[in-house]
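Checklist before submission:
- one chain only
- standard amino acids only
- sequence pasted in full

Submission:
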Amino acid sequence: MAKIIEPDNWLYTPDGVYNHTPERSAEAWKAALGVLEETLKTNAFDKVVLVMGYPASGKSTWVKNHAEEWCIYFVDADLLSETVRSRVIKTIRKLTPISISALFLDTDLKICHKRNDQRRSDRIIPQNAYQTMRSRFAFPSTNEGFDHIQIKRNYSL
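Returned file contents:
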């Protein structure tokens, strides 16, 4: 069975409200990377896929609809940055030579903004956050340590 790890899942309060702060985000990433390490130690999986795209690009939905058995999916918009990806790749490589793939959902930003506006109020991403992510964006490269890269151009659900 596939394993899906999303740092955002640690940002929900016990009453189900999404609460993003820099401190909570750092703790969420620490927890997610810990789960990734523990999952890798089981040696039960064939590959890891880093799923990236802008907020509301369809990452979680894509994984729920396409997850393969024996695969770990690490899903987060912050993976748009090569710096963040390198942290995840280093975590994986220190434990195993498992195959690492990148999946970038290249969803039109107008679609992302429209979906974002339809989210619950606590899940809406401020427009300036999209600009920050765009400034840090780098297409994934095999030079980073990926064995395979897939880009879904003009992705739509």
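Reviewer check: The chain has five helices and five strands.
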